[in-house]
Design a protein that fits this description.
By secondary structure, this protein is an alpha+beta fold. It has three helices and twelve strands. The chain crosses the membrane at residues 79-95.
Length: 277
């Protein structure tokens, strides 16, 4: 009689299928596989077939570029401020230059207030003397005058060729109705580099002083100035002069003073439009 065998899975009390536990070796194998999968899940990498590389040059420094831009802006601001300042200074003068005075500029009033002569000597060694003169220069009706150079020459009698001494003054400004007091000293024969006076003229001066006890001098000036009018600017050259300046000496003395003080100079004037260039 043929026999048949039937394999029946074990069941629990409720008729359910009962799973048998895996052998220890299989459990460890599954654990190892799970851990390996977990490790692989965290080590997934993506390889790209194309690689894009950005090369940053060594000289590319954003902070340095920002500083350079800031410095450039500051330089531009300084340059703009300088240009504005130049315009504020020279534009009014240039606009004045476009105009011209309706009449000839009026010269200032120049007065010789006093003059003293000290220690005058005449002899074989030449002429020696000191002139001490005080002037007043008044700007009567011009808005402003800049006296940029003032030169003085003193000569004997009324001959400008018989020059005895030179002197100069510092530059100065005079606004309208203002005046300037000048104290000028002339010397001759006291220093080696001073003007040499010819012997014939020295002898003439000595004879005149001994004869009359007085000497007559003349004075000439050369003034280079700038006139500032309301709507114009002008270069001006003046040649003031005054003659017959008689100095009376004390008896047996080598010093004397001007007998006719407060003498006004004649002031010829030449002008031309001021040139900026």
């Amino acid at each position: 009689m043929a026999s048949s065998s039937t394999k029946v899975e074990p069941q629990n009390e409720k008729g359910h299928v009962k799973f048998l536990p895996l052998p220890q070796s299989e459990t460890e194998t599954h654990d190892i596989n799970d851990e390996h999968l977990e490790d692989q899940s965290f080590s997934i990498s993506v390889d790209s077939t194309t690689t894009r590389t950005i090369n940053i040059p060594d000289y590319y420094f954003p902070e340095e570029i920002l500083n350079n831009r800031t410095q450039t802006c500051e330089i531009a601001q300084d340059l703009l401020g300088f240009i504005v300042l130049i315009l504020l200074i020279f534009l009014p003068l240039y606009l004045r230059h476009l105009g011209s005075p309706h009449d000839d500029p009026i010269p200032p009033i120049i007065t010789l207030n006093s003059m003293y002569v000290y220690n005058i000597t005449t002899g074989k060694e030449g002429l020696g003397a000191t002139w001490d003169a005080k002037f007043t220069i008044t700007n009567s009706n011009v808005p402003s005058i800049y006296f940029r150079r003032v030169d003085f020459t003193i000569f004997y009698k009324q001959n400008p060729e018989h020059v005895l001494s030179f002197a100069s003054s510092y530059p100065f400004y005079l606004d309208q109705e203002e005046d300037m007091k000048l104290h000028v000293n002339f010397t001759t024969g006291l220093e080696d580099n001073e003007l040499f006076v010819e012997n014939e003229l020295v002898e003439e001066i000595g004879k005149d002083k001994h004869k009359d006890g007085s000497l007559s001098f003349g004075m000439q000036m050369k003034i280079q100035a700038i006139y500032y009018g309301e709507t114009w600017v002008s270069d001006v050259t003046m040649t003031p002069h005054c003659e017959d300046l008689r100095v009376q000496f004390l008896t047996s003395k080598d010093s004397g003073r001007l007998t006719n003080p407060n003498r006004n100079f004649s002031v010829p004037i030449e002008w031309k439009p001021f040139s900026f260039f």
